[in-house]
Amino acid sequence: MMKHAAALHLARFFVVLDSETNFAGWRDAARRLVLNDVPPEDIAWEVREGAGLKGAGLPDIPEGAELRVPREAVSRLETAFCHSDPNRFGFLYRILWRLRNEPELLKIASDSDVRRFETMEKAIRRDIHKMRAFVRFRKLGEGDDERFIAWFEPDHFIVERNAPFFVRRFTGMRWSILTPYASIAWDGSSLLVGPGATKRDLPPEDGSEELWQTYFRSIFNPARLKVKAMQAEMPKKYWRNLPEAALIPEMIAGAEGAAKEMIARMPTVPAPHHAKVQAKHWPKREPQADNDGADAATIDELHDAAMGCRRCPLWEGATQTVFGEGPDNARIVFVGEQPGDQEDIAGRPFVGPAGKVFNAILEEAQIDRQITYVTNAVKHFKFEPRGKRRIHMKPNTGEIRACNWWLNHELALIKPDLVVALGATAAQALLGKVVPITKLRGQVVTREDGLQVYLTVHPSFILRIQEPAAAADERMRFLNDLKDVKKLMGV
C-alpha cells in the first residue's frame, strides 16, 4: 500500500479508469502517453468505480504521430487486460512501450516480460473455459415469465468478454449470469451488463440439479478415470456450485468395481446368433443384383431390397443391413455415420450408447418423433476385430459413395423439409464432399436439388469427451443445435 502511494506521488502522470474492464479508456490513455515518449515508470494507474476516465494533464497526440504495433498484439493486450493482477495496467503499458520499437517482441519466448504476458493470457483463457464449462442455470418462473439464472465465481474479469459466447449458445432463452463483480443478462434481443451480485440472489433449487446428476452418472466412464487429471480440469473450488460434484467421491470410490462390470458386459465377436441372422438375410453368398431397390415405391419396399445389399464389401463381416426407421412422410431426416456394434446385432439404427444420448436430447428439444426419420450414411457395421471385441472403423469414401444409392432413395421417397447431418461422414454423404463440421456447425447448406442440410456433430462425439464438465457443455451445445432445428421447422 505504501509502495503504491509512493508511486502515485512520484509519477508525472496518473490515469484513473472507471472500471476494471475499461480497456478502451486504458488504450486511449496509453496511446497518448506512448506517442509523447512517456516511459512506464512515469505513470501511475488506478481504478475508481464510476469515476469516469481521468488523467492528470494527459498530453494530446502530437500532430502526424502514429502508433504502429501489430494488430494481433492489440488483441492480445485486450485479453491480458482482463487479468486480476492490480499492476497489469502499468505492465501492459510497458509491453506497448516496447512494441513500438520491438514489433516482434511477443515472439521472443525467452524474454521475462513476454513470459509473464503469456502466463496472464493462459490464465484468462482457462478462466473463460471454466465459466463456459461450469455455469449451471436454474429455472425461474413459467411461460412468459420464464428465466434462467446462474451463479459463477471467476478468478479474473472475464464476464463481459465471455458474454457473446453465452448469447450465441442460449439465444432462445432469457437468462442472467451473476458473479461477484458484474452480472450479464440476455432478454432475447439485447445484452445487459450490471453490477455484481451475491450467491443469495440465486433462485432456490429447481430440480435441474437432479438432471445434472443423472447425466453425470450416464457419461461417467470408470475405465477412463484419472483422478488427478479430473481435478486439474475441474478444480475443487468449483465443486460447491456444481450439482453433479456431490457424486464425485462415491463414483471415484466405486470406479474399480464399475470398470470391471462394464468390461464384463462388452459385446463379443461375432454375436452368438451372427451366422443365423446372416443366413436368414443372405442365404446365398454370391451377389444378387435382381433387386436393387430402384423400383421401390415405399420405404418398406426399399428396406426389403436393402437387406440383400452387396454394393460394397462391408456386408460380408456385418450381421445384417441396418436400415432407417420412421414414417415415410417425415419432415426431418437425421443421418448418422454407420451402425455400431449394438445396432448391427439388433438390426435397428440408434439403439447403442450414442443412440441413447441422441434420443434423450431429441426428447429434451421437444421434437416429435412422429415427424422424424433416422438413418445412417452407411448401412453396414464396419469394424476391426480386437480380441473378443469389435472396434468401430470409419467408413471410407468408396463405401460412403456405394451406400449413397440407398440414402438417396430414402430421401427421394420421404421428401423431407430438412435433413440433419450428424457428423462428418453424414455431411460427406449428403453434400458429396468433405466439409469442416466444427467450422460450419449450426449452418444450413442448400444442395443443388434444393434439399436443405443442417450440419452438427454426431452424438458419439459427446461420449468421447473424457472430462465430465466439457462433456456436459458439449451436450448442451448439441441440445441447442436440435432446438435450432425445431425452430427452423416451426414445430
From TrEMBL:
SUPFAM superfamilies: Uracil-DNA glycosylase-like. Coiled coil: none annotated. Keywords: 4Fe-4S, DNA damage, DNA repair, Hydrolase, Iron, Iron-sulfur, Metal-binding. Residues 323-475 form the Uracil-DNA glycosylase-like domain. It comes from the Bacteria. Pfam families: DUF4130, UDG. CDD domains: UDG-F4_TTUDGA_SPO1dp_like (cd10030). Signal peptide: none annotated. InterPro entries: DNA_repair_put (IPR023875), DUF4130 (IPR025404), UDG_Type-4/5 (IPR051536), Ura-DNA_glyco_family4 (IPR005273), Uracil-DNA_glycosylase-like (IPR005122), Uracil-DNA_glycosylase-like_sf (IPR036895). Belongs to the uracil-DNA glycosylase (UDG) superfamily. Type 4 (UDGa) family. PANTHER family: TYPE-4 URACIL-DNA GLYCOSYLASE, TYPE-5 URACIL-DNA GLYCOSYLASE. This is Type-4 uracil-DNA glycosylase. It comes from Mesorhizobium liriopis.
